Amino acid sequence: MTFVIGAACVDVLDKACIEECPMDCIFTGNRMAYIHPDLCTDCGACEPACPVEAIYYEDDIPADQQQFTADNARFFTETLPGHDAPLGTPGSATSLGNITADTAYVTGLPR
Questions:
Q1: What is the pLDDT of residues 48-59, one digit of tens each?
Q2: What is the model's pTM?
Q3: How far is CA 12 from CA 32, 77, 83, 88, in A?
Q4: Which parts of the chain sit beneath pLDDT 70?
Q5: What's the CA angle centered on 46, arms 40 and 50, to 5 degrees?
Q6: Which of 6, 16, 61, 107 is buried most, with the most CB atoms less than 10 Å from its CB?
């Protein structure tokens, strides 16, 4: 299990969750942040830090946002626009910086 970032983060990117994450496993795209499911230790530090309440425990994400569970994982397993290969498990989010891309699902959401 892991935490998942949902719809409320799209086009907000407050990044307060990033500052609270002791595992440095929250990566940023252009329009939202993504939690790496293999690096997240389920500590929950990110959830109360999010001012727009966009972070959910995987089992608690609302039914109308279930797509975000798969999409958070897809951010790391599929090749993103402008990248030559999937991100995989790149280590710390801070050292990688902004990815400058989003999944096809998030890119297709209305602004």
A1: 999 999 999 999
A2: 0.94
A3: 7, 24, 23, 25
A4: 1
A5: 140
A6: 6
